[in-house]
Amino acid sequence: MADVLAAPIGVMDSGVGGLSVLSEIARLLPNESLLYVADCGHVPYGEKSPEYIRERCRRIAEFFQEQGAKALVLACNTATVAAAADLREHYPDWPLVGMEPAVKPAAAATRSGVVGVLATTGTLQSAKFAALLDRFATDVRVVTQPCPGLVERIEAGDLDSPLLRQLLQGYVEPLLAAGCDTIILGCTHYPFLRRLLGEMVPDSVTIIDTGAAVARQLQRLLGERELLAAGPALPTAFWTSADPEHLRNILPLLWKKSGAVQSFTR
Ligand code: DGL
Predict the structure, then answer these.
(1) Residue 187 annotated in active site
(2) Per-residue pLDDT band at 3 (split at 50, 70, 90)
(3) Of the candidates 36, 227, 238, 245, which lies 20 to 30 Å from 30 by C-alpha distance?
C-alpha cells in the first residue's frame, strides 16, 4: 500500500500552461511527487481537431501509466473537452481530474450580469462548453473571446512584449465594451498573463481561473480513495515533446524553480 501512496501524479498540458496548475497542486499537496509532460511539439491544441488531441492525450496517459502514476490531471481545458471522456472510458479505475472554464463561480460573482470568457477556439466551440453554459449561465450573459496567438507568446517565454500587449488588449477590449465585470481565464496558459491583464482592466473587474479548484478536486479524489501521500515528495520531473533546452530555460520564469527536463518522443 505504501508504494501506491508514494506513486507520482501525472500532470499534462499542450505546453507550459499547465505549470500554472502544477504550482497550485504543489502548494496544496506538498507531499506528492509530480510528473509533468508539456506537449510543446504539438502546441497549440486550441487550433487542432478533437481527434488529434485525443490521440496525443492517449499517448501521454499511456506514458504516465508506465511511470506508475496513481492519478492523472489534464491541466488543459482544451484537452479536457476533447479527451477526458475517452480517457475515463479507457482507464475507468484511474483517478482523473480535468478542467473547464469557471462559468459557475463567475455566474455567482458577477454584479453586472455579463461574464467574459477568454479561452481557445477548441474549448469555446465544444459541445461540452455549450452544455456548461446551458447548465450554469442561464441568468447571465456570457461573452466568449477566442485568443489565437496568446499561447504561442507564452510558450516562447514572452509575458510582456509590445506584441503580446497588443494581442491581449484586442481580446480584452470587446469584453469590457460589453460590460463584463467578471472575466474567466478558460485556458491554463492565461494565468501567466494575470499581471498584464490587471493593467488592462479596471479594479472592479474580477478575474477567475481554475488552477486552485483543480488542486482541491485532486486532493478530494485522492483522499476519498485513501491515496494521499505521506511524503517526502521527489523532485518534480519534466518531459517535453519539443526541445528540452527551451523548457529548461523558461522553467525558472513559469515554475519559479529549475528542474530536470527530458525528451518525450511519442
Ligand atoms: N493550455 C490549454 C488550455 O487550457 C490549451 C492551449 C493550447 O494548446 O491551445 O486550454
Answers:
(1) yes
(2) confident
(3) 245
Catalytically annotated residue among 40, 57, 76, 147: 76
CATH of the domain at 230: 3.40.50.1860
pTM of this prediction? Answer: 0.97
Give the integer Cα–Cα distance in Å for 145 and 130. 14
Cell numbers that stand for 219 in this block: 486532493
Distance of CA 1 to CAs 218, 226, 228, Å? 19, 10, 11
DSSP 138: T
57: annotated active-site residue: no
CA 34 to centroid of ligand 1, rounded, Å: 20
Check whether residue 119 and residue 60 sit in a common domain: no
* 120 and 43 in a common domain: no
Percent of the chain with pLDDT over 70: 99
* Residue 43 Cβ contacting ligand 1 at under 6 Å: yes
Scanning the structure block, which residue is given the C-alpha cell 475507468?
92
Which atom of ligand 1 is nearest to 43's Cα?
A: 8
Residue 84 DSSP one-character state: H
Helix (H) or strand (E) holding 30: none
Q: What are the pLDDT digits (tens) for 121-177?
A: 999 999 999 999 999 999 999 999 999 999 999 999 999 999 999 999 999 999 999
